[in-house]
Amino acid sequence: MPSSLTEALGWKERHPHATVYAGGTYLLWNQSGRLLQLPETILSLRNIKELNRFGRTESRLDIGATVSIQRILRAGPKVLSPLLAKALEGICPPSVTSMATLGGNLGVQDRCMASFPVMHVLDARCEIRSTRGTRWVPVTGLRSETGQLQLQPVELITRIQIPMEEWNFFIYRRIGSSPYGITPDSLVIVLVGKTYRGMVTEFRFALGNFSSQIFRNRDLETLLIGTRLSRGKSKDLKAFLDALQEELQNRKFLVTPLQGERVLRIVEMTLSNPFQFP
Amino acid sequence: MIITLDLNGKEETLDIDPSLRLVHLLRNTFGLLGTKEGCLHGHCGYCLVFLNDQLVLSCLTPAFSTHRGKVLTIEGFRGTPEYYDIEKGFLEVQYTPCGFCASARILLTHAILQETLYPTEQMIRKRFTAILCRCTDPSRLVEGVQRAAAIRRHRQHAV
């Protein structure tokens, strides 16, 4: 149980396959035995103050990897955007928010569906450290196209930085049979945008599925930029939805026909009611 | 493995099995039965305790993670002025949680009052979704927590 980051990185170098323990929710969730089934080697990061810092500047949020979800949520609406708050609330049930961490959610192979698409559209980045050095990677670089975590065994995620921007509209919608568990029918839809006098000036759209894959297509997003949204299904919105439908059918992103249909309907319903936007 | 922890204000050092849950350490090793063992899955919320001033589910907390930490259970909280604020607040509105969830509800109330002495109904209802027990009327719970907050404000103002 190291008490400094340097010590922890040294341990990780010597024991690259040690399981990292921050909040412990992934490790211990749904274990019903009286004694816990634990991996052979565990590296606990709970006592490391450097990883437990949470702060903000004018332009971004700086979140240590072991800061609990509850602590981030308590920053309140003046600090946290509603989109980010919704995504964090979707990571785990309220009873474990004091234990679960954002670093843990991003760093575990198959649990990042709730937060990863939002980090993606917000252009968040992660500080990754090892005894060999430090690197900053955009969250987009944390996963391969097939959803595999791109982290070396000797590396640790230490910080997450999220730019603070004002968005005029957003959706965060999670569909599937389980509100917190990740099942094959789970899907997250994220959409954010800015408008100026009724015209879309910026638009970002991402989907996340149960196998930690991300769908995001910047060419598709540009179809709506510069357009004026109107009540009902405009020509531009129809073009966007048709292109999205074709992408979902052609790409390797795993989505069932029913999920694809729901995505299209949710996006259509949101963007065809622009009177909710300033 | 040997761990040292501050348990209810008293330093304890002992040798434990690393796979032991904190709830079992508290109940079986230390005989502190105020922390209840419910689902062992992190769903019911009966096992809430304070670890390093954060409320955690002791069924999902390995005992080894308390090393060099501070644990506060209902037994340690009882007898403090903050406990009496909550007890009095609950009694005045006749809010009586059952034996399974009372400890957890009191500690959760204390956690809320540490955050704010003006808890809103929405905040209270949201935070108490962490405890699944349906033994009492939720609106009585809200009144109880808000009454406890008022008592604590009055006591702190008087000091």
Topology:
The complex is a heterodimer of chains A (278) and B (159).
Chain A: H1 5-14, E1 19-21, H2 25-28, E2 42-44, E3 54-56, E4 60-64, H3 69-73, H4 82-89, H5 102-107, H6 116-121, E5 125-130, E6 133-138, E7 156-163, E8 169-175, E9 187-196, E10 199-209, E11 214-215, H7 218-222, H8 235-250, H9 257-271
Parallel strand pairs in A: 1-2
Antiparallel strand pairs in A: 3-4, 4-7, 5-6, 5-7, 8-9, 9-10, 10-11
Chain B: E1 2-7, E2 10-15, H1 22-29, E3 48-51, E4 54-57, E5 70-72, H2 74-77, H3 81-92, H4 102-115, H5 121-127, H6 138-158
Parallel strand pairs in B: 1-5
Antiparallel strand pairs in B: 1-2, 3-4, 3-5
Helix pairs in contact in B: 3-6
Largest sheet features of chain A: 5 strands, antiparallel
Cα-based radius of gyration of chain A, to the nearest Å? 20 Å
The domain tally of chain B reads 2
Largest beta sheet of chain A: what is the strand line-up?
3-4-7-5-6
> What is the number of strand segments of chain A?
11
Order of helices and strands of chain A: HEHEEEHHHHEEEEEEEHHH
Oligomer: heterodimer
Number of helices of chain A: 9
Structural class of chain B: alpha+beta
User: By CATH's scheme, which homologous superfamily of the largest domain in chain B applies?
Assistant: [2Fe-2S]-binding domain
CATH top level of the largest domain in chain B is: Mainly Alpha
Low-confidence stretches of chain A: none
CATH class of the largest domain in chain A, named: Alpha Beta
Strand content of chain B: 5-15%
Which shape of chain B, going by the Cα principal axes?
Answer: globular
Structural class assignment of chain A: alpha+beta
How many helices of chain B?
A: 6
Q: Any idea what the shape of chain A is?
A: globular
Proportion in β-strands of chain A: 15-25%
Q: Under CATH, the topology of the largest domain in chain B is which?
A: DNA polymerase, domain 1
